[in-house]
Amino acid sequence: MSQAKLVGVLNKEGMKALSDGDYMNAQFLLTQALDKCKAFRSALNEAKIRNNLALVMQTQGFVEKAATNFKLAMSITEREAGTDTGLYRKIKSNFEKLEAA
């Protein structure tokens, strides 16, 4: 299996674990996806995974860790694709919800 496909599988399974309420497994799977992503330097995939990891952190009440991941995801997306993208808007919306809570 290619690294890109493996990252996709880990990300998908991590989000499934999050929706199932299995936060520890979600965090583990998304951290694995993030590590693999960094290894083959896929910046936008890293941004997507950081956004998802931030959602896991937010759900567990780790507000500062969530904010850090949202900010990193926004920064990466802005640098790689700009701010006029669906990905950037989604991450920013998630971050704003965290700040408003």
In the CATH hierarchy, the architecture is Alpha Horseshoe
Overall shape: globular
Proportion of residues in β-strands: under 5%
Total discrete domains? 1
The helical percent reads over 70%
List the helices and strands in order: HHHHH
Q: Please, what is the average pLDDT?
A: 95
What can be said about this structure in brief?
The protein is mostly helical and 101 residues long.
Task: Give a verbal description of the structure.
There is one protein chain. This protein is mainly alpha-helical. It has a single domain, classed as Alpha Horseshoe (Serine Threonine Protein Phosphatase 5, Tetratricopeptide repeat). The chain has helices at 3-19, 23-39, 43-59, 63-81, 86-100. α1 runs antiparallel to α2, α3 runs antiparallel to α4 (63-81) and α3 runs parallel beside α5 (86-100).
Overview features:
101 residues, globular, single chain, mainly alpha, Serine Threonine Protein Phosphatase 5, Tetratricopeptide repeat, 84% helix
List the helices and strands and how they pair.
Layout: H1 3-19, H2 23-39, H3 43-59, H4 63-81, H5 86-100
